[in-house]
Amino acid sequence: MVRPLELAGCPMHELLDRQSAKLARRLVRGFAERIPVYRRLPEEELDGDITAITEHNLRLISRAFRERRPPVRADLAPLRESAARRAQEGVPLEALLAAYHLGARMVCEKLFADARPDDLDDVLEAGRIVLLYMEAATAAVCSAYLEERESLLSQEQHAIHATVAALLGGDRAALAGVRLPPRYLVLAVAAGRHPDEDGPGAPVAGRRKLHRLRTALQRYAAEPVLPALDTAGGLVLVPLQGEEPEPGELARAAAKAAGVPVWLAAECAPPQGVPAAARLVEEVLEVVRVFEQPPGGYRLADVLLEYQLTRSSQATALLAGLLDPLLDNPDLLRTLTAYLGTGLDRRRTAELLHVHPNTVDYRLRRVVVLTGLDPMDPAHLQRIGAALAARRLTERR
């Protein structure tokens, strides 16, 4: 038979049992005084659930003293149930663990306050048993808490995905009972590839990039943003209550947080207008990428001509065909593109192409001869720009 641990000739488990109810209330008061989260819990919860689980812990410690062994899994079931309830209530895990450690310390201080020198061996053994108990208890509490949080997050994610799908699909029936903001800023996002995504930890790097991007966008919304993203990009619905953020600012913040170039297209719409806005921003973003615009935030007004050229029509092919005579001489087409891209600056064009300015002049004269289009003529310039844009579009299709 195992000899019970003693203090001043009295079994420790009996000392603890005699005062367990009173000590539990004292411990709970200590939690409320020293742990801010517990201070904000309702009195009925402190006096009910929290006090009850504290008493159960004291009984388990008492049994551990009597049997000189830590609790078994079945003994810890109430601790796991209590931890799951705290997770449901949103009590942080660190606060929960702080309460367990504070409680263990207060028990030891109270129980061993009058220990005598000849009690040293039993006090040391009791301390070892308390450490074993805390190891078992915290492991049970952490696993139950995290399992419950994972379940809750899964439910939250499912609800978010369902809301996004309903908004994008215009499913008003599915949105019945869902509180919606008056407006959404609908974003189509394209994110560059992070260097870490090319290494062995690519999946983790991609998820971390997305998390940073979402967190950056969340700073512009009072309510949770609704993302439909993968590592390359996608759609994000940003709930708006007040002033609409500027797309360029959003793109810069997202790029800085994610550590990659970010392109985004934005359009504001009420909930019922989200499907049309989503189609529009996806088209605008496609135009931005087709015409190789720099990273940043865009609206339809920023790419009106390019957007119109991407609309399906017979004119697009005809415009692209205006430059067909240059296909046999790629240098001419490259020079014409660079010349327009530099704002008709022949010296800058020459620097970009690593040729003499006179070579630029010669090539531009050849363009006039072959196509009949003169970039020096303002009447021809707009047609040349449209033809270059149309060719770029048709080459990508």
TrEMBL record:
PANTHER family for this protein: CARBOHYDRATE DIACID REGULATOR, DNA-BINDING TRANSCRIPTIONAL ACTIVATOR ADER
Domain PucR C-terminal helix-turn-helix, residue spans: 332-390
InterPro entries found in the cross-reference section: CdaR-like_regulators (IPR051448), PucR_C-HTH_dom (IPR025736), PucR_C-HTH_sf (IPR042070), RsbRD_N_dom (IPR025751)
One Pfam family this sequence matches: HTH_30
Gene3D superfamilies: PucR C-terminal helix-turn-helix domain (1.10.10.2840)
Ranges for domain RsbT co-antagonist protein RsbRD N-terminal: 22-158
Signal sequence residues: none
Protein name according to UniProt: Helix-turn-helix domain-containing protein
Superkingdom of origin organism: Bacteria
